[in-house]
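User: We ran a pulldown and think these components assemble together. Before we commit to crystallization trials, I'd like a predicted model of the whole complex to look at. Sequences follow.
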Amino acid sequence: MMPTEQAVAMPATERGEIHATESTARSDASAAVVLLGLHKSFGEQKVLDGIDLTVGSGQTVVVLGRSGTGKSVLLKLIVGLQKPDKGSICVHGQEITTASFEAVNEIRKTMGFLFQHAALYDSLTVEENVAFPLRRHTKMTPSERRGRIEELLADVGMEGELQKMPCDLSGGMQKRVGLARALALEPGILLLDEPTAGLDPITSREIDELILKLQEKREVASIVVTHDLHSAKIIADRIVLLHQGNAVIEGTFEELEKSDDEFVTEFFKRDS
Amino acid sequence: MSYDTNVSGNWIDKNAPQAPVVVRSALASLWKSINEFFEWFGNIGIFIWHVMRATVRRPFEGRELIRQLDEVGSKSLPMVALAGAAIGAVLALESRHSLIRFGAESMLPAAIVFSIIHETGPVVTGLVVSGRVGAGIGAELGSMKVTEQIDAIEASGVNAYKLLAFTRILACVLMLPLLTLAADFCGVMTGWFADSLAEPISFHKFLHAGFAGASFSDFLAPTLRTAVFGLIIGVISCFQGMRSQGGTEGVGRSATSSVVLSSLFVMLADVVLMKFILVFFP
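Assistant: Here's a predicted model for the assembly, 554 residues in total across the polymer chains.
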């Protein structure tokens, strides 16, 4: 796991007021992802209310929060699938909220996104799903591509399942194929939406180890949305807890565990 | 007299008689419908703009285009041919009685051929393809939308407008005229067959009488206008599918609205294009 110098725990004096400051975020020009004052509403419902977040290269930030607090929306904003109402999103130093469609597409090639329900292309086989980004964004020969696909599927424990259709896979297996697809282009940033949800403990552990391995081997910056506190404890350099559109507290797992904030205590109590 | 403000911030007389609740809710729902109507046109305009922008940039998604040509063309052929054949036979049986009454029996081959090529062939093909292909595209893209597969395509840096929409629209535009020719051919064949059952006539004679006085523009303009039908079916079905919301119910709504709207616009376009053809290809 990466050292946690940047993971400054912020005591929760008043909920909603504590989050990384603008100056902190701006100062880290080499950061993989920098979010500043991000607002997003759907009609009357305010989902994100001025979130600030900085994720450095090789760092894993876990985003926790109750269901419907905008965690998945946060990931979709970063990859440009949704537009924020207000605020700035910098990916590898490039502002994506004002970038052209083509520029955003170029940035997306440096990111791997694992969707909550895997979102595999249901008319394609497992092999074709993983081949999808490789076929479009690399000049690999068919044999090179095949080798890369086998390597990726072996990493997630899905070797030998190349010709299966997504409908023939369990939810956990779909999630693993989705992860292999997200890793296909060797992204610098990984956005994982509930990567261990619906997986058995052994596979969850394997996925956690894979994320750690990527962190060490290739300095991949990861933002992981999860409800799995065990997983968060293993993979997180820093944890951000969302509540009512704001980051209530930010720090290491141990720091958050020791927090005396009522909401944080409530959140961590169930698993303790 | 006391005053209060309404939602717009304007001063209103509190003692003034209020419109009945039913009237107000009817007006509100009418206003909402009008808004949605114009919003739909605005959104489809934005959608078309995205697709047009996508078409001029590489890669051109040739593999997907070929798959869609097969999906729209070859797989619609049996149904279109059957519909064309049915129309030809019905036309022959129906027209015979009317023409005999007016002593114009010899005009029967020409009546069958011209009505099939000019109107019934293109319209029937347009409506059959609206039903089969429109529902298919609406349901497929709707399902991809609600299961986040379209998001996954975009997240991997691939232009979903090009991969999913442009290829399907182009396939519809290219295939409709060819399917129309197939429907026309089947219609003329069954028209001759039905006619010859009542009064035997050789196929050669039937064709000779049917195409007497026909020029190239008699075939070209009506057949090519189905490319516009294809454009309408492709654009509306892709648009309805890609804006699908709300799980399986939303997918059902997308499929239904794709068929209903594309059929409706095909019929409207038929009227407009017919006038256009009569002016430019008299």
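Chain B has nine helices and two strands. That may be worth checking against your pulldown data before setting up trials.

User: Thanks, that helps.
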